[in-house]
Amino acid sequence: MPTVSGNRLLLSSRFFVPTLLFCGLLAFSSCSKSPAQIEKKDLGLGQHYLSEGKVNEAIIEFQNVLKVNPKSVQGRLGLATAYLKKGWTAESMLEFQEVTKEDPLSLGAHLALVRYGVNSGQWNAVKPEIAAVLKIDPNNVEGLSAAGERDLALGREKEAE
Q: Which of 22, 41, 48, 75 could be joined to 65 by an S-S link, Cβ 3.0–4.6 Å?
């Protein structure tokens, strides 16, 4: 016949293990975040770091966003902007191009590509980007200015006016 202390041990182990498992599962489920929550947190951190000039940290956070959601337009825009601030122009332009594929109405991405095309004198390559900017916003001053600069550079003074 088991002793009183033996029964106590039997009762405690019978309830202790399931209780411990339940508490562990409860703790684990409350700590795990959904992909959308992780994306939101990383996006916020990336924007915060970018605003503080911590470009390397921002790049890491925006890359984390894209690991969770490769189609995140905001994550890709942030990464492109961080790359540009870092001086990684080619990588930045590739990211801006990806943004325009995911979101053809992304005015900011199209304008970044227009600025690059105008500044580098890539007049043929910049034409569709200028057209995209002016389709999104027909009165966009920067788009209209870039169109005029392109026309002047190509010797089309009448069109530039």
A: 75
Contact between 132 and 104 under an 8 Å Cβ cutoff? The reply is: yes
Residue 59, phi then psi, degrees to nearest 5: -60, -45
Residue 81: closest CA among 55, 104, 57: 55
Tokens linked to 127: 């034409």
DSSP structural state of residue 85 = H
**CA distance linking residue 25 with residue 34, whole number of Å:** 16
CB 77, CB 99: distance < 8 Å? yes
The Cα 86–Cα 135 span in angstroms is 30
Q: Is 45 helix (H, G, I), strand (E, B) or coil?
A: helix
Burial 61-91 (b: 16+ CB within 10 A, else e): bbebbbebbeebbbbbbbbbbbbbeeebeeb
